[in-house]
């Protein structure tokens, strides 16, 4: 999925939700970093009171990055080309105490496996806010054409994500989930976004892709204009050292996750 970045309006909506969550912490970082395929204007952070120095790491093709730089001439940038670049600890130096990563992990072949890499993304005493797409998305397609189910297996559910974070010993993981609705007036835009959400489509032959496109076009002709995704938001502190069994206190996963009935809607750009 490295060359198929998620739609910028969705990424920025999720990024704004992450920085709003940061306001709930009584924590003043010395340095912040945003990892994103569609970085927010730096003024968005300052507008809600996050005024620490900010480094923004933009993921994208060279032409996309140059446009972003022109629009954000005062941002400090460390540019990475793809998901693979983020596996290098050097891509995250200097280490930031507060890091935001909206839908970045969705570029990995296996999202839950990729969580093992994120300790490199933030400082030893820091906090990471990230978001991933979760199971249960695109019911509007599945409910009408059940064959779409075969393309949806790559999205984890919130309980599996929480269990994985606990397994990796992240400190105080907190998760919640939001339903995000997207509205489309143009079929080509809808098709392009669905291909981003379902990377398996990009592995199909041209003829197979045409078959799936025809299925989606049939739904569009029947009136489909809205689709929805599940977005899992997570807040984690840095990995904790293993403790002796006598020192371990058991905390239920349910107490660390909250499936909140948030719902947001925005229209995709034509």
Description:
This protein is α/β, with parallel strands linked by helices. It has a single domain (8-241, 259-267), classed as 3-Layer(aba) Sandwich (Rossmann fold). It has nine helices and eight strands. It has helices at 8-22, 42-47, 62-71, 111-114, 139-142, 158-167, 187-197, 206-221, 253-256, and strands spanning 32-36, 54-58, 76-77, 98-102, 127-134, 170-183, 226-239, 257-267. Strands 3-2-1-4-5-7-6-8 form an eight-stranded mixed beta sheet, with helices on both faces. Helix 2 links the parallel strand 1 and strand 2 (54-58). It is globular and about 50 Å long. The two termini are 22 Å apart.
CATH architecture: 3-Layer(aba) Sandwich
CATH topology: Rossmann fold
| Biggest sheet features | 8 strands, mixed
General shape:
globular
CATH homologous superfamily label: Vaccinia Virus protein VP39
Average pLDDT, rounded to a whole number, is 85
Total strand count, please?
8
Category from helices, strands and their pairing: alpha/beta
Radius of gyration from CA coordinates:
19 Å
Percent helix: 25-40%
Low-pLDDT stretches are 61-80, 243-252
Number of helices: 9
Element-by-element helix/strand order: HEHEHEEHEHHEHHEHE
- Strand-residue proportion: 15-25%
Instruction: Quote the distance from N terminus to C terminus.
Output: 22 Å
